[in-house]
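Subject: design request, 239 residues
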């Protein structure tokens, strides 16, 4: 009687690889780590961002999970993207640049105004910082909460409200990051900064290019420095 043919060992390995290939491919696609590494190298490190915690967070957080499905293919492009309700997720470099300025990390308490997709909040949380984030559009706030929880950043505390008033019950903060352009710096936010605290905020008319400003508080003295021209969606006020 004839025995069934015995394939050489290498043929079995080859067959196994062929079977597993679509699985591995799907994994790579769902994580898109290669694109993220290129984004950090080509858009962020090349433009001078050095803070290791910021770079590690930008490499770790799956940006494509924070944009609508229709934008997912462009998630790692060098530009802002629409996230619905007329709002945008900032360009990756701007997120990294602002993150580096406020030096997030364990033991730092940070307030964000403008949760949007939750991406910036996740980046801050990935550094080990304690993050509070306020969003004025309820639907965006609700979606961001679900997304942050699903990705393991449920510790981020969020609130659907007008961020003009800050978060008095949790103040003071080591740093405040504002991701919508305001004509002036809301006084309650300055008040809620710790002595030695920093705030990064785009200031200027919503219809023109604005200036990204770094505000520092020391005792009763508040100083500010202009960093670079930027374009952000307008800081809105609750009616
Ligand atoms: N940081 C976000 C990008 C947000 S775009 C991200 O990583 O995706 C700016 C956001 O600020 C918008 O979602 C807008 O609704 C919100 N916003 C504008 N004015 C606000 C206010 N007064 N208080 C809280 N959020 C505000």
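Subject: RE: design request

Done. Sequence follows.
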């Amino acid at each position: 009687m004839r025995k069934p043919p015995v394939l050489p060992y290498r043929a079995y390995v080859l067959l196994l690889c062929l079977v597993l290939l679509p699985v591995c491919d799907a994994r790579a696609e769902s994580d898109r780590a290669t694109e993220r590494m290129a984004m950090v190298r080509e858009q962020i490190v090349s433009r001078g961002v050095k803070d290791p915690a910021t770079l590690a967070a930008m490499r770790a957080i799956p940006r494509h999970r924070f944009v609508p499905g229709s934008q997912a293919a462009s998630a790692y492009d060098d530009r802002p993207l629409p996230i619905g309700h007329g709002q945008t997720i900032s360009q990756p470099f701007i997120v990294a640049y602002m993150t580096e300025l406020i030096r997030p990390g364990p033991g730092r308490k940070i307030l964000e105004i403008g949760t949007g997709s939750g991406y910036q909040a996740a980046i801050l949380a990935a550094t080990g910082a304690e993050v509070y984030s306020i969003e004025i559009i309820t639907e965006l706030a609700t979606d961001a909460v679900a997304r942050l929880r699903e990705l393991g950043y449920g510790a981020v505390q969020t609130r659907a409200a007008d961020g003009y008033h800050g978060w008095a019950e949790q103040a003071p903060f080591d740093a405040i990051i504002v991701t919508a352009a305001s004509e002036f710096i809301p006084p309650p936010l300055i008040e809620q900064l710790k002595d030695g605290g920093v705030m990064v905020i785009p200031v200027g008319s919503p219809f023109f290019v604005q200036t990204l400003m770094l505000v520092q508080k020391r005792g009763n003295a508040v100083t500010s420095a202009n960093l670079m021209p930027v374009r952000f969606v307008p800081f809105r006020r609750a009616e």
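The beta strands are 81-84, 87-89, 109-113, 130-135, 157-160, 173-178, 193-203, 210-218, 221-230.
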